[in-house]
Amino acid sequence: MKLSILSCAPKCYSTRRLVEAAKERGHSVKVANTTRLTLDLAHGEPDLYYKDSPIIRPDAILPRIGTSLTRYGTSVVRQFEQMDIYTPNTSAGIGNSRDKLRSLQILSRHDIGIPLTAYVDDKRDVESALKRVGGAPVIIKLLEGTQGVGVILADKAEIAKAIIETLHSTNQQVLLQKFVSESKGKDVRAFVIGDRVVGAIRRTAQGQEFRSNVHRGGKAEVIKLEPAYAEAAVRAAQIMGLRVCGVDMLESASGPQVMEVNSSPGLEGIEGATGLDIAGAVIDYIADQVKFPDIDIRQRLTVSRGYGVADINIPKGSKFIGKTIKETELRDQDVVVLTLRRGSSVISNPKGSRVLEADDSLLCYGRSENMKSLIPDNQPKKRGKLKPLPTTPVTEGTTL
Ligand SMILES: Nc1ncnc2c1ncn2[C@@H]1O[C@H](COP(=O)(O)OP(=O)(O)O)[C@@H](O)[C@H]1O
Ligand SMILES: [Mg+2]
Question: Is 263 in the pocket of ligand 1 (CB under 6 A)?
Fold first, then answer.
């Protein structure tokens, strides 16, 4: 495969290891400085230039976008997506995970533990929000901090209020977060590739420090993840649309609490502590996936006029209960069932002989008019407890 690693740091450990692992496996690999890729937009012809020349299409890219380059970097990744070039991490996934508020908002509707968090604009609302997240001591976080910079532990409510007011006065938005005291100075980093955790470490802060980031002196040790932690990590990665990422979790009294999902996880700490060839696993995964560019299924499927995708829930009392999918005659109405969601499991391409039950949810593609009539006006919104769709690619990729 021809792989381009997008990175502004060709000499850093992670990039070097990824290049080495790709070469060892006989792939052709280049490191492209993200800032030197320029986007050309023309009718039906999205293209990219590297320095002065049009790029030679790689089979895949591996974005390693630094926090200082989120906007430009995600635009570059989006351009590769428009050109149907495979990326394990989508531009939307990178953008969403970069912002701590946005990522927690997205995770919060799913059955995944997260620390109790509040986001407040008006200083008159700070006091009650503080109480709702458990009062002082409380964590205050910048939305886009990294390496522990921008995470503060305020001992007293008065101090917390003063810090928030000060940050607001400089136009910095912050999160208030429950201080998970039982996890003080420790967190777990699970390295996720595809739908599995390939390695995990526990980081422990040194001395009085409560932040366990390696950049703050935290020490890393290899751990075997309990299934609940592995499950939370993989699901968080799936929900965020990231296939290569580091999921940071606190070990709370009630189990894993996901703090953030990192779309450019460093390899040094995890390879050093586990002794595993994580870079090799990343490359092998990408090589396996190049045939399946991540696509926005809704966007793709709604380009044919009059057709679309819809979630059709089967409420109690529905005429569909007890019928097989074939007997519902959906197919005759030009509606195809793509997946059937039942409780926490997802059945892809369900067979016509599958019998429907109350509370099933069918993800359908078909004639919008016909689907509309199947959705009652007051269709209840299903919340939480939903398992994300499996990472299995939905359609085969375009020829590269
Ligand atoms: N709610 C919390 N309770 C306890 N410790 C926390 C909490 N949030 C963060 N920490 C500590 O601070 C560190 C940095 O926080 P994090 O949200 O991961 O920011 P960064 O992006 O800067 O790494 C974490 O690794 C953890 O050790
Ligand atoms: Mg972190």
Answer: no
